[in-house]
Amino acid sequence: MTDLAPRLARLGRALRAGGVGVTLRDELDAADALALVDMRDREEVRTALRIALKIPREAYDVFDRAFAAIWSGTSAMSAPSVPRAPRESAPRGGRLLRWDPDARRMGEAPSAVATEGEEPGFSSEALLRRKPFDDGSWSPRELAEMERLLARLARRLASARSRRLVPTRGRGRPDLRSSLPRALRTEGELLSLARRARALDAPRLVFLLDTSGSMEAQGRFLLSFVLALRRGVPRAEAFAFNTELVPLTRSLAPGKVRLTLQRIAASVPDWSGGTRIGESLNDFVRLHLRRSVNNRTVVVILSDGLDRGDPARLAEALRAVRERARRVIWLNPLLGDARYEPLAAGMRAALPHVDTFASAHDLASLERLLPRLAV
After folding, report:
1. Contact between 82 and 65 (Cβ < 8 Å)
2. Which string of DSSP letters, residue by residue, matches 161-204?
3. Range of the domain at 38
4. Residues ≥6 apart with Cβ < 8 Å to 130
5. Running DSSP on this structure, what letter comes out for residue 103?
6. 184 shares its domain with 320
7. In what order do the strands lie in the sheet with 356-358?
8. Which of 84, 81, 87, 76 lies closest to 64 in space, CA to CA?
9. pLDDT reading at 293 higher than 90
10. In the sheet where 195-200 sits, what is the strand order?
């Protein structure tokens, strides 16, 4: 990331403007910390910065807003909108001094009134991250941009590295234990070091997508995510269900989103119709569970839980999946509404057998889910 230093400077400036006492030394510590983490992992970067900048717990909200704005493409001249905390150490006379990383000197803090051209702003990408999937105003250009963002999200998951170290011929940490036998072959001279690096995680994923009428918008976007994921994670499988279960894996053609979606819509019976989740999951258990799921598999179910079938059958099927899988994740787009409660009979029957119950109503919610999809 070539603009790392300017981003850190803008982040420190935004935090100080919000009343968080971040110093230049803290910013230098943050730069050192970022050299030790995977810069493609947004959550890992956020955690490293929060620790290195010594953010107090009561300022977590201010930090999260500043980080979200600056690390998601906000213009270099923009700053996130953060509330100003009261300062107890303001000098007499009312002047507030702070470190200006651009001028590299202490200067007077700017007035709370923003001048022209300095109003907080967000990039179009940041706005798309929070645009609900079921918003009816998606333009063709926005759909194309969202597909690009979903593909980038899939690449992050496919290239995530585990904490496990494996031998490598390239750059990595020196492995002295493995280097010693090499030295014995050269009369004790250590001419080359064996090295180890963090292994690439290869997640094993199974997606079960509700294609009933109430899930049509969300299903389209998650299918786009699965299509992109298939490029880097060949062990990802997908099934659609409404009134019956339909395997989709062989129909997924990476890079041909619209064509694939049209083909799937034509091949899935009762597309955008009703749903019988329990019967569909029972078919999955009976026909595909043993082959597709093992103790390293993460099973992701996308559904609003509005089931017209028997809740007991749903619970029974989900219990069988949970006993065999590493993790079961249920994505319910209705969770994007703070007023939502899982009162539907199907949803209540499913929850005891689910490890993670989360929303999938926009791209930001999928980004928060990414660590849970890794092995």
Report:
1. yes
2. EEEEEEEESSS-EE-HHHHHHHHHTTTT---S--EEEEEEP--E
3. 4-108
4. 362, 363, 364
5. T
6. no
7. 245-247, 236-241, 204-210, 297-302, 327-331, 356-358
8. 81
9. yes
10. 161-168, 195-200, 173-174
Structure tokens at 255: 């890079």
- DSSP letters, 104-121, are TEEEEPPPSSPPTT-S--
**pTM of the shown model:** 0.59
181 vs 158: CA distance, rounded Å: 34
pLDDT at 339 over 70: yes
- Alpha helices, DSSP H, located in 238-294: 257-267, 277-287, 289-292
The number of domains in the chain is: 3
How many residues make up the chain in this entry? 375
202, two tokens: 């290869």
Place of tokens 């030295």: 183
Average pLDDT over residues 49-75: 82
pLDDT in tens, 86-97: 443 444 444 444
Q: Is residue 315 part of a domain?
A: yes
Residue 144 in domain: no
